[in-house]
Design goal:
four-stranded mixed beta sheet, alpha/beta, 1 helix
């Protein structure tokens, strides 16, 4: 019996153009999904959203901009 797992990843300090980290998170999610699991990624963003994507479920929670970081947001609460 091959039971699927819900794999939840929480990533703080992610920006729309964060490059390597965003790419790694996306590819991990795609791999988990292809293996039959239910990946969930939680990231900070401008506004709340919850969507199914090619990398699994992506939940965005509102987070303030971190000054001097070029657009990075952080989960504070």
């Amino acid at each position: 019996m091959n039971a699927s797992l819900r794999i939840v990843r929480l990533a703080n300090f992610v920006a729309p153009a964060s490059g390597g980290l965003r790419t790694a998170l996306r590819e991990l999610g795609k791999g988990y999904l292809e293996a039959g699991h239910r990946p969930v990624l939680v990231v900070p963003g401008e506004r709340e959203s919850d969507e199914e994507t090619g990398q699994g479920r992506v939940i965005t929670l509102p987070g303030p901009l971190l000054p001097g970081t070029g657009g990075y947001r952080v989960l504070t609460d």
